[in-house]
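Progress report, Aim 2. The chain analyzed during this reporting quarter is listed below.
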Amino acid sequence: MGMNVFAPDQPQCGQFVVRNISPQKKTVKVFNYPINLRETRDLLKIPGIYEAEIKSSLMKGQLRRKFLNQDIELVISNIDLLQFTDCGIQYLHGYGFTTGVTIGFNQLDGYVQNLITSGGGGGLTPQQHKTLRDLIHFIDQGPGDGFASGAFKEVLPNNSPFPTSIIWYLDVAKTKKLVEKYITYVSAAFPSVIQWNMYDYDGVTLIHTVTDTITYNAAFESTRTRAIS
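Predicted structure tokens for the chain:
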């Protein structure tokens, strides 16, 4: 059972391959083309189907329904899905999409570096570039690529469902601060101000601060204003 190939004279960049895993052991139709049980198909090989159709269908069309119904599973996808919201990204992650969904550090770093050297879109200064790199590293997941392993997170107050302080240190000895997050609550579980502070390599010098001010409509966040300094 191999992949069905259509329209070989219609080359496209990227792949979007799905497999029929229907619980009812039925043939599944995607964009009017059948996929037999356990067989795969590259949807970008279907005539008239481009990335735009796949993106739209994933969020509100037949692809979404077939993933949710467990009729199909993802085999490979390397198309650009970056316009999706956090909710959409969460849904895609749940079905195995790991490429093209979010901007990775290296991808964004290269893009920003290109802005610096080319001056595109007004350009970015080297310091602004560094700021952006730092934000990618730290908000909200703590240190990642480019940092030594062994970082230590402290959440205060202890055993509280609504922490007011979350601090990442270089190590368990807390020798140097990497990033800290302070939360002020308007009431109960509703934060009104969230502030991230990022520290230089010495663990003492504050290099960047990001502050979010949040308002609510009943129990739902209605606005968020972000200040970066």
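The chain has a mean pLDDT of 75. The two ends are 57 Å apart (CA to CA). These observations will guide the mutagenesis work planned for the next reporting period.
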